[in-house]
Structures are given as structure tokens and as C-alpha cells.
């Protein structure tokens, strides 16, 4: 499971470095690309 961190000041959401590397593996990378396309 991948978890997001959030900034208490700006309320932005982000991965920590280890979570991001885990998320970039094969099929998960494709899902991430789909998410980014929908955001843009």
C-alpha cells in the first residue's frame, strides 16, 4: 500500500522517497501515469 504525506501549512500531498520508488514499479507506474493524465 502506498501512503501519501501532507503538508500542514500548504495542505499539499506528496510521497516520501521510499514510497515513490515502490510506486514506480511496472504496472503501478502505468496507473500513476493515468492519474497524472487526469490531473492535467
Description:
This protein has 40 residues and is mostly helical. The protein has one domain (5-39). Helices cover 52% and strands 10% of the residues. The chain has helices at residues 17-23, 26-39; strands spanning 5-6, 13-14. A two-stranded antiparallel ribbon has the order 1-2. A hairpin with a 6-residue loop joins strand 1 (5-6) and strand 2. The protein is flat. The model has no long low-confidence stretch (mean pLDDT 76).
Brief descriptors of the model:
40 residues, single chain, 2 helices, two-stranded antiparallel sheet, flat
Task: Note the main sheet.
Answer: 2 strands, antiparallel
The amount of helix comes to 40-55%
Shape: flat
Uncertain residue ranges: none
- Average the pLDDT over all residues and give the rounded result: 76
Straight-line distance between termini: 24 Å
Order of helices and strands: EEHH
Any idea how many domains? 1
The number of E-state strands comes to 2
Strand content: 5-15%
Report Rg: 11 Å
Strand order of the largest sheet: 1-2
Structural topology:
Layout: E1 5-6, E2 13-14, H1 17-23, H2 26-39
Antiparallel strand pairs: 1-2
Brief sketch in words of this structure:
By secondary structure, this protein is mainly alpha-helical. It has helices at residues 17-23, 26-39; strands at 5-6, 13-14. It is built from two helices and two strands; from the N terminus they run ββαα.
Amino acid at each position: 500500500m502506498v501512503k501519501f504525506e501532507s503538508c500542514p501549512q500548504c495542505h499539499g500531498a506528496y510521497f516520501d522517497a521510499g514510497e515513490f520508488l515502490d510506486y514506480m514499479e511496472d504496472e503501478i507506474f502505468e496507473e500513476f501515469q493515468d492519474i497524472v493524465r487526469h490531473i492535467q
